[in-house]
Amino acid sequence: MKWSLPALAALLLFYPFILTGPFYWDIGVAFLLAAISASAWNIVGGYAGQVSVGHSMFFGVGAYTPLLFYHLWGLPPVAGVPAGMLVSLALAVAIGMPTFRLQGHYFSMATIAVAELIRIFVGTWDLVGAAIGLQGPAVGRAWWDLTFRSELPYYYIFLAVLAVVLYTTFEVERSRFGYYLRAIKAGERAARSLGVPVRATKLKALMLSAVFTSVAGSLYSIKTGFIDPESGFGILVSVQMVIVAALGGAATLFGPLIGALLLVPLQTATNTWFGGGGSGLTYILYGGIIVLLARFEPGGMHEWWQHVAPRLMRRSHAA
Amino acid sequence: MLLAQVIVGGLLLGAIYALFSSGLTLIWGMMNFINFAHGEFVMLGMYVALLVVVWLGGGPATFGFAAAFALFVLGVIVYASLIRHVMRGPMLAQILSTFGLALLLRYTAFWIFSANFVSLPQVSLSGTLNVGGILMPVPQLVAGVAAIALTLGLHLLLTRTTVGSQLLAVAEDRNAAMLMGIRPDRMQALAWGLAAGSAGIAGALMAVSYPWSPSVGETFGLTAFVVVTLGGFGSVPGAMYAGLIIGLIQALSAYWLGPIYKDIVVYALFAALLWLRPQGLMGKA
């Protein structure tokens, strides 16, 4: 176990040289993006136990601002990233303040409704391209436009961001803030009676989560050079985050990585097997996986493994 | 005159909102559980109506009853196979269960029925009624009146009958109800059946006058959230008033601002409600 972390880091660092070629690099980048957004979701949805089903609003904001900065003022898209983070932060406060007074279901409902509100609104707003969306620079003017022909630079940029998100989560886990989160998740009333500032802690978790989700959105749009309401704010963006985190194991540091490791290749496979019509089947599959997870193993693969591993060990000892 | 007609149209659609939202609020009131798949139940009710009309023929009474019955059965199955096992589990499992179900139903419907809009073939209901210069299409009038009657019926069932008392007893205190010889599991299954059934028949009533595709489930689900939040969680009369109000607001904002704004106005109202009065018109926080 001691070597698992360096081994994981080495594997992620050298992956592009183990499996070479654009096809595998593309999968690698998709894996990293899924892992980043799910890790960001995990902070509020997993650790704090406040299940957001509308995280696409932060992803979408983060995805739109870089291309909007380019579209309006011809600035390099990267310049829009901090603006996206700020808007996401404000959005998190606007949603968290009222709903965190109420039971957890309110938050879930509010997130899905607000995400949908923004999606429809952006789809009618001409300044941000309405239903057509926005495009980034077709050809990079200089390196700071971050338009690379190869997937490789994106892979390492995304990897660096993933490292930051995971390190932050790790620090949160160990801190007093992390204990507060676990206390709230275990029982809000009990936590409050022990002096945990419940609302402030939940709000802080949402703000942190929103900022990272926004960055994930920015990475996506800068790499793709294109964004529209559906790929930024669509419900399937939120679904992806929830399912990746829950499948791997919500409220665990590496759960989202495991989830992305299982889901991204699966998605690539269904899309290749079924062609263009595959996306529909992918979402039927997603729905089925989510239902089965909720019914049988809400702790995800992480908890499942903790049940299974000791039994396997015992068997190998006995043999 | 045109404004009066818009108002009447909004109220008639609002009556249907009231009907399917009362199902959502019933589940919430009974077991503090939000059903994210409720809009998909409405959507399935519409397709059941279509299939019955195409295969078996028959009037609104036939396909309305068929949709209610099919969705009642689905509701009971969903409760018995899924909800019963997650409702006392972690929050994540509670929310993911019906959220996943919503995706499963929605995309299966896309797969089977395609994304194209469909509408019911001309049924026996048609024509318009002229009441003092206000033109009312008969199908919408019948659907609206039926929806209000059914919502009131559900309310009376809950407040005036033995079964209703048993349902409320389970909602109030599961253990105490059990000591009184009520089986909570059976009552909760019944609640899910009634909730899904009301969504199904509401879908069938709407199918009479509006075209639809599998994507409407998402819109109706969110509409039901807004109605239930406005009316107060757990209150059937609240859902009725709020349904009518939301229908009216939608019709007026479509009339004054343009059709694309009708959903934006409603969701913005929801956001405002969360800030100002999260317990709704008739709810207790």
Gyration radius of chain A, rounded: 20 Å
Could you state the oligomeric state of the chains shown? heterodimer
Mean pLDDT of chain B: 88
Helical content class of chain B? over 70%
Strand and helix order of chain A: HHHHHEHHHHEHHHHH
- The helix fraction of chain A, in percent, is over 70%
Secondary structure tally: strands of chain A = 2
- Rg from alpha-carbon coordinates of chain B: 18 Å
Instruction: Tell me the major beta sheet of chain B.
Output: 2 strands, antiparallel
Strand content of chain B: under 5%
Summed up, what is this model?
The complex is a heterodimer of chains A (319) and B (285). Chain A has 319 residues and is mainly α.
List keywords for this structure.
heterodimer, A: 319 residues, mainly alpha, ABC transporter involved in vitamin B12 uptake, BtuC, 14 helices, 76% helix, globular, B: 285 residues, two-stranded antiparallel sheet, 2 strands, 3% strand
Report on the architecture of this protein:
In chain A, strands 1-2 form a two-stranded antiparallel sheet. Chain A has 14 helices and 2 strands. The model of chain A has no long low-confidence stretch (mean pLDDT 88). Chain A has helices spanning 4-18, 22-47, 56-73, 80-99, 104-124, 152-174, 176-186, 188-193, 198-224, 229-233, 235-248, 255-274, 278-296, 300-318, and strands at 134-135, 226-227. Chain A is mainly alpha-helical and 319 residues long. The longest helix of chain A is centred in the middle third of the chain and has 27 residues, at 198-224. Chain A has a single domain, classed as ABC transporter involved in vitamin B12 uptake, BtuC. Chain B is an all-alpha fold. Chain B has one domain. In chain B, 75% of the residues lie in helices and 3% in strands. Chain B is built from 11 helices and 2 strands. Chain B has a two-stranded antiparallel ribbon. In chain B, a hairpin with a 2-residue loop joins strand 1 (128-131) and strand 2 (134-137). The termini of chain B are far apart. The model of chain B has no long low-confidence stretch (mean pLDDT 88).
